[in-house]
Amino acid sequence: MGKVNLRGHIVGLVSLRALAIASAFGVMSGAVAQADLADQIAKADLGYGEYLAGECVTCHRKSGTGIPQINGIEAETFVTIMQAYRSKDLDNKVMQMMAGRLDDEQIISLAAYFSSLPE
Amino acid sequence: MTSISRRGFGGLFGASALGLAMPSLAFGAVPKVVVIGGGAGGATAARYIAKDSKGAIDVTLVEASKRYYTCFFSNLYLGGFRDYDSIGHGYDQLAANHRVNVVHEWASSVDNAGKMVKLASGGTLSYDKLVLSPGISLKYDSVPGYSPALQSRMPHAWTSGTQVQLLQNQVMNMRKGGVFVMVPPPNPYRCPPGPYERVSMIAHLLKQHNPTAKIIILDPKAKFSKQGLFMAGWEKHYSGMVEWIDPETHGGIKSINGDTMEFVTDLDTFKADAASVVPAQRAGSIAMAAGVTDGDWAPIIPATMASKADPNIYVLGDASVASSMPKSGFSANSQAKVAANAIRGELTGSRVYDPRFANTCWSLIATNDGVKVGANYKAGSEKIDVVDKFVSQGGESADLRKTTYEESVGWYNGITSDMFS
User: Which of B27, B142, B185, B394 has its CA 20 to 30 A from that of B405?
Assistant: First the structure.
């Protein structure tokens, strides 16, 4: 998962990612879905993402201990993880609640914003 | 899971802000925001307004203390889990990084019509928008016999700082097998789980240094935050040490004697070797002086945190009536971002996004035994409504409790960075 340390509590991420993308895009093939997601991330509203990120940075900061740092996270990884919290496939009560009221556009705006930041 | 929409983003959000005029501002003038109170609400509001307006708004933060000791995690200092220095923070980065003008003075009154804050030193600050985040004042006489003079013998330690150091010293110097009496405040008050986390941290100290000591809680409330979790934790970690007595049983505190350290109730007279008395609370006094309170607290418009009494004043955190949100640092930080967004929109015409609120309160019961309760919220027409909520469960694994504690440490680093960096 590359450069962002998300610690041991995120397990089985590869399969979750496939699951999330598959469920987000219904019957489309993985390759098409990924291209479409990348396109949406590229077009996302960074200002909206920055505003929404106000909810995240109360806990997530540049050098995270106890809570992973998410600045510079790969956008598609972010989308996958947030969708997995929203569907309760990932297990943390705070994150399930925070992700629970984000729609896909909001998650994509956040992904675009956090991925645009330096680590 | 719903499919991802392919709609564009333009025009979906904040359209209402685009048409806003900028009343009362002279053309070309840089609008001024004054923020009173440098805690979780005020420091966050000052930082976000300054950071996001990028010089388009002149921001002044009025905070008497040059170094701010957080109330949150002061219990962890009490229990020996944090150094005192680690809960102290300065304002230098707000000035250096975001051009916030930090004024270390007391604000004494507000001229609402003239949009002017008067400082105790005699100076004045004019504003276009005023943010009040003064925290709480204590209603000492809510506990018969308690007074500012008695806070040296029975620290409230409810505004952090040296009171917490004093309390720790008194707990450590109790006689062997002595009695500690805790008097929590009545609702509503700052930090609902705080008195019970305090009991946990004092029990943690006593278990190591004075294991035959006892803690008696004389509670004015019949129930309290995370009650089942705390009581199970006390039984597990400090069996036989902590006794919680509800108001129906003790019948209310009739008087306190600071010389004899006695608490007189209908049930009995309790003689303490050390004690903490946390009285009832109200909004910080500048909120009273500004005329934005109704009774003890300041009513607000949920969507913006603007005062219901004065459209140019916003009230954040403990001083506001922000129900259903609890009075917590997390809540104040969350409300500050909503207010900052609204204030920027009013003063500069920036886009105003949908208000969103959240809160989580972590508490430490014993080493690596953390619990949490939280909710997220939306602005209703009359109050801030719960969208979703959660609470730690009884019987959770030791691993999960440890992770919860570690998460609280991450949150502390996050929120203090969000306030002061």
Answer: B185
